[in-house]
Amino acid sequence: MNWSGLESLLSGVNKYSTAFGRIWLSMVFVFRVLVFVVAAQRVWGDESKDFVCNTRQPGCTNICYDHIFPISHIRLWALQLIFVTCPSLIVMAHVKFREGKDAKYVEQHHGSHLYSNPGKKRGGLWWTYLLSLILKAGFDASFLYILYKIYDGYDLPRLSKCSLDPCPNTVDCFISRPTEKKIFMLFMVVSSALCIFMCLCEMLYLVGKRIAKLVKIRHQNEQILFAEQHELTDMVPPRSQYHKTDPTLTDSAHDKL
Question: For residue range 157-178, what is the model confidence (pLDDT) as tens digits?
Fold first, then answer.
């Protein structure tokens, strides 16, 4: 799996993300991808070779291993990381689409831009970004649930009993380094939970910021409407409407006036 290529693609998402999104991306690569590549794969290795049952019945060990490990933790986490990081690529593709659309608009309108900033989360891009957060949190939560259901919790027992055919009776099976594997599994589970938490925080931040902006715009519109409906009028008639007389003038003078 080419993680370096995936990292180079997702690194471009940083400039289109909020602060919560950048923290999420850092957590994915530092606490999940690097741990997965550097440590987890070496801890698990080829687990089927190290799986031992106290019987020599042909096929019994393979059947018991398939029953206890329906899917390898390594492969499950690899699928989880692929699914979780894909929504970020949707956001990046939407931004690239906007940039291409803006470039065509500039050519047709002699330098006038369609978007002042194609990466700004407004209109359709805002909804795409919010959808990507929902998908990322949903995928992480789904894989945590799958892992919990497959292995009946986040635990690796030192001893597993198996009584499936072709085993002659109930046999005891053992996995190698169960404590070390359990520690790495819990680490990956906690990292996934923290990523879900960061996605929820980012969703609340985006929605809260959008609501605050709408309230501000509504308040400004109400102020403009109030000003238009209550325009200032002249409270005092013009001075030309008043006929001023001098009380010191005589009646004849008034008549002349």
Answer: 888 888 888 888 888 888 888 8
